[in-house]
Each structure stands twice: as structure tokens, then as C-alpha cells.
Design goal:
Blueprint: H1 2-19, H2 24-35, H3 38-61, H4 68-93, H5 114-123, H6 128-141, H7 149-177, H8 185-216
């Protein structure tokens, strides 16, 4: 029982601390809570956790069958970059679309469901694959994570709990800090737009560095 608790806590700490640095997922959770409501933001967070757990499961069970660092990332990164550019454009366009009579604002008009937005944004996050592959190997090497169903289940439960807890921090901040969202929507949307745009450029740089540069040489 103790070894399962330890691996669960390891997964919780890794995912919780990994959620805290500013990124597309936690900033979006913050913005959904600020512009819409806590309920919608929680559904966004649940979607993110579900996709992350699927990714962890694939990295645990399918690492030898699926070339995560090869063809999958080669096709996933451009899709992720395009989606982030789309979100950046929507964020910039939303700056002038706030009505003083409506405090429930949809930052992404083409994506009505916060749950669907969470699924898409999490699924198109290529950095979580090498992140979890690396941590899986570290924990397996230290014998904290074992090749058993019970150990994997405890590990994934901890990961889900940690990610959800980290996102709830941003959801709480988003729902509490901006009581009157109209006063701050320009700043929030500008920050989100530049964040999405910057992250799309960053992952395309990773694609160039990892795949395209080697082909050119």
C-alpha cells in the first residue's frame, strides 16, 4: 500500500508543479473563469485532465509501439501551432467585442463549449508527450513506478489530482480577481493573444530544430 501511495504522491507533485508555470492551459483556465464562470472553467479543467491521462497511458503502454518523438510530433506540432495562432487571433479580436451589458463573454466564439476547448488545447499540446515520457523513465529507473496495473493506476490518479488542483488555483484567481471583467478584458486578451502567438512560434522552432534542420543538413 505504501509504494502505491508514494507513486501517487509523486504523480501529484509532478503534475501540480508542472501546471503552475504560466502556459496556455492554466492561462486559458484563468480567462474562462474570469470571462464566463467557474462552472465553465471547471469543465475546461476536467477536459484537460482527461486528455493528459490518456497521454500518460499512451506513454506508459505504447511507448514501444508508437513513435512519439518521430512522425507523431512531426504532424502534431504544426496542427498545434495553427490552433494557437487561431486562439491568438480570437483573443485580439475579442478586445473590442465586450458588451457593458453582458459580463459573460465568450473569448472563443467558434468554440462554444469550454469542455471542447479544453480537449482541443490539451490534445494539441506536443510538449506534454516528452514531459511525461521523461518522468516515466525517471520513476521507473528509481523503482518508484512499477510495471503493474495497480502502480500505474495510483500514478495516474495522482497526476489527475495534481493537474486539476493546479488548474483550480488559476480558476480561483480568475473568478476572484476580476469582479468587473470589462475593466480588464483588454489586458487579459492582449496577454493571452501574445502568449498563444509566442507559444506557437516556440513549438514551430522546436519542429525546425528537431526535424526540419536535420533534413536540410
Amino acid at each position: 500500500m505504501g509504494k502505491y501511495l508514494k507513486v501517487g504522491i509523486s504523480g501529484l507533485l509532478i503534475s501540480f508543479l508542472g501546471t503552475l508555470p504560466l502556459g496556455t492551459l492554466n492561462i486559458t483556465a484563468f480567462s474562462v473563469a474570469a470571462s464566463k464562470n467557474t462552472y465553465e472553467a471547471i469543465w475546461f479543467a476536467i477536459a484537460v485532465v482527461l486528455v493528459e491521462l490518456l497521454v500518460v497511458r499512451l506513454t506508459l503502454f505504447g511507448d514501444k509501439k508508437i513513435n512519439f518523438n518521430g512522425k507523431l510530433s512531426f504532424y502534431l506540432i504544426p496542427l498545434a501551432a495553427l490552433f494557437l495562432v487561431y486562439l491568438a487571433i480570437q483573443s485580439f479580436m475579442a478586445i473590442n467585442e465586450v458588451s457593458e451589458m453582458n459580463t459573460s463573454i465568450n473569448l472563443f466564439p467558434a468554440i462554444q463549449s469550454s469542455f471542447i476547448l479544453g480537449l482541443l488545447l490539451s490534445a494539441l499540446n506536443p510538449l506534454q508527450i516528452p514531459f511525461w515520457m521523461g518522468w516515466n523513465r525517471v520513476l521507473l529507473a528509481k523503482n518508484k513506478l512499477q510495471n503493474t496495473g495497480s502502480s500505474y493506476a495510483s500514478y495516474m490518479f495522482g497526476i489527475g489530482t495534481g493537474t486539476l488542483s493546479g488548474l483550480l488555483v488559476f480558476i480561483f484567481l480568475g473568478s476572484r480577481i476580476f469582479d468587473n471583467y470589462e475593466q480588464y478584458h483588454m489586458i487579459v486578451n492582449l496577454l493571452m493573444g501574445f502568449l498563444y502567438l509566442g507559444f506557437s512560434i516556440y513549438i514551430m522552432f522546436l519542429l525546425y530544430k528537431k526535424h526540419l534542420k536535420l533534413k536540410i543538413q
